[in-house]
Amino acid sequence: MSTDRAPRPWCSHTVSVATYNLVGMGTSDLTAYDREKYASLHGHAGDLLELVDAYAPGKVIFVGHSVSAMIGLLATIRAPDRFTAQSSQCRARYHR
User: Fold this and answer.
1) DSSP 3-state of 36
2) In this structure, are strands 83-89 and 60-65 parallel, antiparallel, or unpaired?
3) pLDDT confidence tier of residue 5, bands split at 50, 70 and 90
């Protein structure tokens, strides 16, 4: 299941939506993986900030799921002036 596609239909006609793979995951460049840099989520937060700086002229709304939501929080702490809002998503499971 891919949760990153959920917000696209209702917002993609009014805002730009960008998605990316964390280094070392999916179709990312595996040669870019640096064990020391990515030993903590701070390395991924730095990557997120590089993407925001490169592609977003103003403040952004970050939507993250699970670990990506934590990466977004770390990025927001480092550069609060780059984010206007953040939404942390998770899938709810109900057991009876």
Assistant:
1) coil
2) parallel
3) low
Q: What are the backbone angles phi and psi of residue 73, rounded to the nearest 5°?
A: -65, -45
Average pLDDT of the segment spanning 56-67 = 89
Calculate mean pLDDT across residues 15-37. 85
Residue spans per domain, the chain: 40-88
Q: What is the pLDDT of residue 11?
A: 60
Residue 26, classified by CB atoms within 10 Å of its CB into exposed (0-12), middle (13-18) or buried (19+), is exposed
Please give the Cα distance from 76 to 48 (Å, whole number): 10
- Residues contacting 7, CB < 8 A, separation 6+: 17, 63, 87
Length of the chain: 96
Please classify residue 24 by burial: count the beta carbons closer than 10 Å to its beta carbon, then call 0-12 exposed, 13-18 middle and 19+ buried.
Answer: middle
